[in-house]
């Protein structure tokens, strides 16, 4: 227990670390002022009694009290005493020497032992503080016996009980202070966590709305424009052979094509941040590299191509959900994600060597992912299955207890996408 630990056991000054910490609490300030008042009041009482009784050494008593008050005030105002334990110990040594001089000329110096107890416990480590209290108590007893011809139990019990009360008071206060600090840190942590959760919820809401808008644009406006373009192309082909081309149909086709391209740009602008700076394969590789815990490997099969944004979002979200559950529940050592491009479909496989589970016993409620089982039975399978089936895909889960888990998602690519896309580089 250093002097820097609690800022406010009754003491004359803040602990060494106090300047870098928070300011004293109102209770700490009151205790500090009370100790100042007690110390100086006892000195004034000793000097006043000596002067009023016209004691033979009244002048020496007043001088010793003045010297002790000066040493005390100098230490209270010295910044080094507030910061350095060594400086505090030197100041206590000076106080002890001045107090010994007062004890030598007046039995009333015994009273100063009580505030000295608190100063020693406050400025020194606990074991040294207790030792200093014991030495101070012995000095007080010796000073009293030197000025008194009668030896009474009170001469011993008074200083010893005073030291015990001081030790118990300081230890109790420090225990309360530590508990208060733990509560304060817990409250600060809760406030920080609440702010982070609120920010995460806002971010999740924004991403969900972006995905919804992208899906709506793709499924309604973009699909409608694509259908119009196909119908206009069919109308041109249906014209009699040798008939002049109708300019209105050609202009309508161009307008439909331009608006379809604009709709696709809107959809790409609403792409989640994970897909903004690269392809789906690149996003999945970054996802595997950032997973804590099990070793996750990413592999790519087939000729990569640009997928419609809803397809990329669905596959990325399914991979994120599955890996999250692998990390939280599967206790797996290895996992692998494979993205396979085929002529008319794309497949995503997530396999781990974790604990596995019984898919037939998985709860229907939403959960974090689709890896091995969790304690609450929530696997997130319905949410993942819904993402796949919304795009006309197939979602399958294979697992057994102790045998790991394999999740597979196959999405058929729309016909118009197959006609207008070319293979691209994966990364």
TrEMBL record:
Catalysed conversion reaction: ATP + protein L-histidine = ADP + protein N-phospho-L-histidine
PROSITE patterns for this protein: HIS_KIN (PS50109)
InterPro entries given in the database record: HATPase_C_sf (IPR036890), HATPase_dom (IPR003594), His_kinase_dom (IPR005467), Sensor_HK_TwoCompSys (IPR050482), Sig_transdc_His_kin-like_C (IPR004358), Sig_transdc_His_kin_sub3_dim/P (IPR011712), Sig_transdc_His_kinase_ChrS (IPR017205)
Histidine kinase domain location: 315-415
Segments traversing the membrane: 30-52, 58-76, 88-106, 126-147, 154-176
Highest taxon in the source lineage: Bacteria
E.C. designation(s): 2.7.13.3
Location within or outside the cell: Cytoplasm
Pfam families: HATPase_c, HisKA_3
Biased segments, Gly residues type: 368-380
SUPFAM superfamilies for the chain: ATPase domain of HSP90 chaperone/DNA topoisomerase II/histidine kinase (SSF55874)
Cofactors, names only: [4Fe-4S] cluster
CDD domains listed in its UniProt record: HATPase_UhpB-NarQ-NarX-like
Any one Gene Ontology molecular-function term assigned to this protein's record: kinase activity
Primary site of residence: cytoplasm
Alphabetized UniProt keyword annotations: 4Fe-4S, Cytoplasm, Iron, Iron-sulfur, Kinase, Membrane, Metal-binding, Transferase, Transmembrane, Transmembrane helix, Two-component regulatory system
Positions of region (Disordered): 355-382
Known function: Member of the two-component regulatory system NreB/NreC involved in the control of dissimilatory nitrate/nitrite reduction in response to oxygen. NreB functions as a direct oxygen sensor histidine kinase which is autophosphorylated, in the absence of oxygen, probably at the conserved histidine residue, and transfers its phosphate group probably to a conserved aspartate residue of NreC. NreB/NreC activates the expression of the nitrate (narGHJI) and nitrite (nir) reductase operons, as well as the putative nitrate transporter gene narT.
PANTHER family: NITRATE/NITRITE SENSOR PROTEIN NARX-RELATED (PTHR24421), SENSORY TRANSDUCTION HISTIDINE KINASE (PTHR24421:SF62)
Protein name, UniProt field: Oxygen sensor histidine kinase NreB
Origin organism lineage: Bacteria, Bacillati, Actinomycetota, Actinomycetes, Kitasatosporales
